[in-house]
Predict the structure of Alanine racemase.
Amino acid sequence: MDIYPITYIQVDLDAIAENVRIIKTLIGPHIKLMAVVKGNGYGHGSTEVAKVAIENGAEYLGVSTLDEGIELRNNGIKSPILIFTPIFPEQGENIVNYNLIPSVHSLDLVSTLNKIGEEKNKEIKIHVCVDTGFSRFGLFPDQVIHFLNIIKRRYKKIEVEGIYSHLSTANTEGHDFTRKQFEVFSDLLGNIKQQNIKIPLAHIANSAAAVKYPEMRLNMVRVGNVIYGQSPFLKNNDLNLRETWKFKSRIVSIKNIPKGSSIGYNREYIAKRDSVIGVIPVGHADGLFVDFYENHITVKTLIKNLIKDLLKFFNHPIIQKRVIVKGKSVPIIGRVSMQHCMVDLTDYSDIKLGDEVELPVRRVTASSRIRRIYFKNRQPICVEDSPVEKGNEALVQTSVPGGLVVGKD
Ligand SMILES: *Cc1c(COP(=O)(O)O)cnc(C)c1O
């Protein structure tokens, strides 16, 4: 038996399952689905997401680093796993030991892998990465045929199972660059075919491209965002994707303060009336409002930020950050601190000490220290091996006495 910690993340495995089925249905039975579970499954927990994705039709998994791939294998995941980040030749041994698929753009790595393959008498699968305009990893298109021919001639233990590229702008509104990247990739695939080189898998589409441009699905798509309920469409959610994530905590203190009091660091908020202030034990260290640094300054972003700052200055409700308590949207006031934030409860007399709060903490900024609690059929399930739960005995001590009980599955 176990009890909920005060602050936790509720991950809805049924929603993840349904989102996987939605994308699988959309692409149809002949196109393979790679579920991207990098970054700890976009914060949800990579092993749990991987299991659900596979159960619901994903054939491949994608992660960034070798370590993430090894973690999945150690947790019993058997599906093919592609590693996106280039590995060093000295990591080749682990690729083979854990049966992972590296992304390759260097002959040094190919040569080392081939040697390992000869020693162990094993075929080693690789996917060749092509740079069609992202300028991160990969060969330029005009280097690929030569590269493939050398592999074919010299490195008999290497099987080029796939070839892929990554799109830069599929998530944003303009279509031109996405189309251009796809065109470059398609031309290359045409040339490869002409040379009579056979590669079973070709893939370029992320979530947005897989949804928006059916022709870019080729024979596999690599999707992350849609699995986690984030629609590639900015406005309406045509896909009916389900929400997978809720960040929850509780009100741990409520106090009455007189009009004119300043609240929190830097006196950023002054009470205009006698007020009731609630405290939630969640702050920047937990990932609340950790904003990414915007270093691409355009006139548009400058104007946007200026308007934002003006609205903030006048305390306009549009810019007001809020949490949800008992179905009501309650304003956060004052500056968020390391592990606390404060809310104005003056207008909400039915909100009491200990009430549950839902906070807008982004998936990728949420601290990995915060425990994930998995729900299946609306019931919390016990996840024995989850890395975020292991060694977290301290959480039990901070749990709410007499709080909700989580049964073992
Ligand atoms: C993250 C990633 C994806 C998935 O992108 P989404 O927009 O989340 O679908 C696909 N391919 C690569 C190489 C990635 O790094």
Remarks:
- Residues 36, 38, 84, 166, 206-208, 222-225 surround pyridoxal-5'-phosphate (CB under 6 Å).
- The chain has a mean pLDDT of 89.
